[in-house]
Amino acid sequence: MNRDKESFFITTPIYYVNDKPHLGTAYSTLLADGRARFERLVKKDVFFLTGTDEHGEKIAQSAEKHEMSAQEWTDSMIPAFKDLWEKLNFSNDDFIRTTQDRHTVAVQKILEELKDKNAIYKDKYTGWYCVHEETHFTETQVHQYNEEKGKPEEHMCPDCDRELERVEEDSWFFRLSDYQDKLLSLYEEHPEFIEPEIRRNEVVSFVKGGLNDLSISRTSFSWGIPFSFDEEHVTYVWIDALINYLTAIGYGDESKAEELAYRWPADVHIVGKDIIRFHCVIWPAILMALGLEVPKRVFVHGFLLINGKKMSKSRGNAIDPYDLIKIFGSEAYRYYFLTDITHGADSSISIERMAQVYNADLANSWGNLVSRALNMSDKYFDGKTPGITDEQIQKTNILSAKIEKLYQPYCEAMEEMQFGKAAALVLEVIDAANLYIEQTTPWNLAKMEGAQEELAFVIYNILEAIRIVAYFYLPFMPKISQEVLSRLSEHDLSASLEDFARWGQLKQGVEVHKGEALFPRLDVEKLSLNE
Ligand code: MSP
Question: Which protein residue's CA is at the shortest distance from atom 29 of ligand 1?
Answer without folding.
Answer: 24
